Amino acid sequence: MRSPTPRTTGAVVTGASSGIGRATALRLARDGVAVVATGRDLASLEVVVDACRALGGSARAEVLDVRDDAGVRRVLDEAAAEHGRDLAVVHAAAVVAYGHFEEVPAEVMSDVVDTDVLGTVNVARAALRAFRRTGGGHLVVVGSLLGEIATPYMSPYVLSKWAVHGLVRTLQIETRDRVGTEVSLVSPGGIDTPVYRQAATVLGRHGAPPRPSAPTRPWPLAWPRCCGAPDGRRTSGPPTRSRSPASASSPASSTSSSPP
Is the CB of residue 13 less than 8 Å from the CB of residue 141? Predict the structure, then answer.
């Protein structure tokens, strides 16, 4: 049996300026974990850092675009040097775009895929290399229910999240014999976060989380283990049913999720 990861003393959180990333950073700070909050907007990150400190936690901001491989390596290497095998990396950064597939501009499709897929590749690769050097760590990737089902008008995001889920499952298999290293996937259902309102759209309107939706909540690092998911997967959020004609022929079209 593999040894469990040690107690987490430090965490790098991507996409920490809002939504799930922000909620996770606050939860970790409250629990005494030193947080490195990363994102593309310094002003938003500084608000999060102040909130973490108000909870009695230690936190600092790092401006980071997960598409920047060198930048990702720098931030994770610095955190690993400080916390060793007690480091967690929570990857929550993602972007969304709406539109009929053939009407989504190529540059918008590329931006979503580059951020959501290649950004995940950059973070996962840097994290696992750091964990190998230090003897362990915990990588938590925030996926989506839309990495398991399909819905119309969100092809860039659905494509990306299916790819992310496949990547994480591959990493879980490849690291299953690495003592001290954990790779987990969290798949939220309908969560009300700013990502919907911040999304690019060619529909003339923005989308909203599928109903019923829950307020933004953090995803504790221990969920995959404490909830008895042997493959490191956890689907969270309110019950959500896809009624999309695009997914009606798939058994996954009625996948539901349950709260912890």
Answer: no
- Note whether 126 and 72 are within 8 A (CB): yes
Listed by start position, the domains of the chain span: 10-254
Task: Give catalytic residues, as residue numbers.
Answer: 157
Q: Specify which residues 187 forms β-bridges with.
A: 235
- Model confidence pTM above 0.90: no
Q: Hey, which residues does 200 pair with through a beta bridge? A: 97
- In terms of Cβ atoms closer than 10 Å to its own Cβ (0-12, 13-18, 19+), residue 100 is exposed
- CATH architecture assignment, domain 10-254: 3-Layer(aba) Sandwich (3.40)
Residue-wise pLDDT tens digits, 14-46 = 999 999 999 999 999 999 999 999 999 999 999
d(CA 178, CA 190): 34
Report the alpha-carbon distance of residue 162 to residue 25 in Å, rounded: 25
Least trusted range by pLDDT, from 101-105, 167-171, 234-238: 234-238
